[in-house]
Design goal:
The protein is of the alpha+beta class. It has six helices and nine strands; from the N terminus they run αββββαββααβαββα. The strands form two sheets. Strands 1, 2, 3, 6 and 7 form a five-stranded mixed beta sheet that branches.
């Protein structure tokens, strides 16, 4: 009888510790608040790959922010075509910061953990982990607020801290898109 009680106590202790770890690693549902009727970047919350919570647009650190919004895992390859340009732009314009915002339909919190921890394991670069903030939201409502017509492409937005969308494009990087983005940055900074 004593052995059974020890085994049960050990099991409960292990479950409590493991459950506590899962609870801390599993981000909660993201916030999505559309407070304006015009096209804008709404208030959203999410956790980066270092498990830190952010509320955008207020937590955007740049005066101007380049936001990469992919909706599917395979679109990461497209985002990667922009990263060298985004890094060079940040170096040239200290008031500009870029973020990756994988945007996924709402799902149970435990699923968030598996998605985020999978991305975390695949991204060793500390800056990339800090700047990748996953949004688990009603994507239809988000797309309506931002005037994003579909999920089939990566959307690249230049956004102010107040949520104004100042410039946009879709798809992979090319020199023409880069030049027009630099022109928009020069206009608004």
């Amino acid at each position: 009888m004593l052995r059974i009680m020890i085994v049960i106590a050990g099991f409960l202790l292990t479950a409590a510790v493991f459950g506590g770890l899962l609870w801390r690693m599993a981000p909660n549902q993201s916030l999505l608040e559309v407070s304006r009727e015009d096209v804008h970047f709404p208030t959203v919350s999410g956790f980066n790959l270092n498990r830190q919570e952010f509320n955008f647009p207020q937590d955007l650190t740049g005066e101007l922010n380049i936001l990469f919004v992919p909706f599917m895992q395979r679109q990461q390859l497209v985002v990667n075509t922009w990263i060298p340009f985004a890094q060079e732009t940040e170096a040239a314009f200290p008031s500009v910061v870029y973020y990756e915002l994988p945007t996924i339909d709402e799902m149970p919190s435990l699923s968030h953990m598996f998605v985020n921890e999978g991305m975390r394991a695949g991204i060793p670069d500390e800056t990339a982990r800090e700047r990748t903030v996953t949004l688990y939201i009603d994507t239809s409502e988000f797309m309506e607020a931002t005037d994003i017509p579909g999920k089939d492409e990566v959307h690249v937005l230049l956004v102010s801290r107040s949520g104004d969308i100042l410039w946009r494009t879709t798809g992979q990087f090319d020199e023409t898109k880069g030049e027009t983005l630099l022109g928009a940055i020069a206009t608004y900074r």
